[in-house]
Design a protein that fits this description.
Helix content is 70%, strand content 0%. It is mainly alpha-helical and 105 residues long. The protein folds into 2 domains: 48 residues; 36 residues. The model has no long low-confidence stretch (mean pLDDT 86).
């Protein structure tokens, strides 16, 4: 069984808005766009949930959990890089002190 084609976001929004405005039912929208009623219902629910979250947060969209996870990873890697840089500077300085100077030959 082949996977159905991916609909562009703009098309999903157009379909959901036509259902919400009463222009057509979920069944009609699904039939006209050759998708399942379940898909149209899911798009509608996602659309409404996104709007609900936007209103609840005063219109400010916060970072997604994936974005938060990536930011935490960036912070961790930045800290590790800083620590490695400091450690490398300490090693270089100690190596300079241990190496015989070129002018003492």
């Amino acid at each position: 069984m082949s996977r159905p084609p991916v609909f562009p976001v703009e098309d999903k929004i157009r379909i959901v808005l036509s259902v919400l405005s009463g222009e057509m039912t979920i069944a009609e929208a699904a039939r006209r766009n050759k998708v399942s009623e379940q898909s149209v219902s899911r798009w509608k629910a996602q659309f409404l949930e996104g709007g609900r979250a936007g209103v609840a947060e005063g219109g400010k969209a916060g970072p997604s959990s994936r974005e938060e996870q990536l930011q935490a990873q960036i912070d961790e890697l930045t800290t590790a890089l800083g620590e490695a840089h400091v450690e490398l500077r300490v090693w270089k300085r100690s190596a300079e002190r241990l190496a015989p100077s070129r002018t003492s030959r």
